[in-house]
Amino acid sequence: MSEEVKEVKIETSGKVIQSPCGPIIHGLEDVLVKTTTISDIDGKNGILWYRGYRIDELAKYSTFEEVAYLILYGKLPNRKELEDFKALLASYRDLPNEVYSVVTTLGKVKAHPMLALEAGVAALGAFDENPNDYSKEANLRRAIKLTSALPIMIAAHYRASRGLDLVKPRKDLSHAANFLYMMFGKEPDETSTKAIDLYLVLHIDHEVPASTFATLVAISTWTDLYSAIAAGIATLKGPLHGGANEAAMKQYLEIGKPENARAYVEKLLAEGKRLMGVGHRVYKAYDPRARIYKELVRQLSEAKGDMTWYRIAEEVEKVVLEKLAPKKLYPNIDFWSGIAMYLLGIPYEYYTPIFAMSRVVGWTAHAIEYLDQHRLFRPRACYVGPHDVPYVPIDKRQ
Ligand code: ACO
Question: Is the pTM of this model over 0.90?
Answer without folding.
Answer: yes
